[in-house]
């Protein structure tokens, strides 16, 4: 008599069908292990394949962020200016490059600044602030000495004594919101002694020189 489908076979009993229970039990015992290994392998491979594009995306995001920060900094806070001409020797030379900033800047005596006055010269020029608004400037061209508020300046940065008057014809008081500037190469510099430039409106100042970047062997902050 045939067994109903709902009935279970007793695999412990001998069967004329030749069923090998020991082999069946061994395979059943081995299969879960294989399944577990396969599932683990899939789990291990899957995160790696997902992490790789995520890591690339993070790198791209960092690069783009750094680029945008650089653009914003150089657009609103600092600028790089190339120096043209010998007027600031021996402090700076033709071909040097400097970083300037005008952020919260108030000109002070002794500062090195870059300015641009189109009626004088189209290119930006680099000069040193000799006096600010309200101070007086006088120059003894025989002795080569510059006086500010009747006090002689100690100027170790100059290439030589100030012997060339250009258009300067006597003691002056620097007007409000202006500065009196000169190049460190005093006898080869067009500056506030030249009537075409004169005392410079502070609005023409592009910024104070903060850093020399070229030549690379002189890289560093500017005092």
Please identify the top-level CATH class of the largest domain.
Answer: Mainly Beta
> How many domains is the backbone divided into?
2
Percent helix, as a range, is 25-40%
Total E-strand runs = 12
| Average pLDDT number | 82
Summarize the structure in words.
The protein is rod-shaped. It is 25% helix and 24% strand. The strands form 2 sheets. Strands 1, 2, 3, 4, 9, 10, 11 and 12 form an 8-stranded antiparallel beta sheet that branches. Strands 7-6-5-8 form a 4-stranded antiparallel beta sheet, with no helix packed on it. The longest helix is centred in the N-terminal third of the chain and has 56 residues, at 21-76. Mean pLDDT is 82; it is low at 3-9 and 11-15. It is built from 1 helix and 12 strands. The chain has 223 residues and is an alpha+beta fold. The protein has 2 domains: 18-76; 79-221, Umud Fragment, subunit A (Ribbon), CATH 2.10.109. A hairpin with a 2-residue loop joins strand 6 (145-148) and strand 7 (151-152).
Task: Explain briefly what this protein structure is.
By secondary structure, the chain is of the alpha+beta class. Helices cover 25% and strands 24% of the residues.
Indicate the topology.
Layout: H1 21-76, E1 78-82, E2 97-101, E3 112-115, E4 125-132, E5 136-140, E6 145-148, E7 151-152, E8 172-173, E9 178-182, E10 200-201, E11 205-214, E12 220-221
Antiparallel strand pairs: 1-2, 2-11, 3-4, 3-11, 4-9, 5-6, 5-8, 6-7, 9-10, 11-12
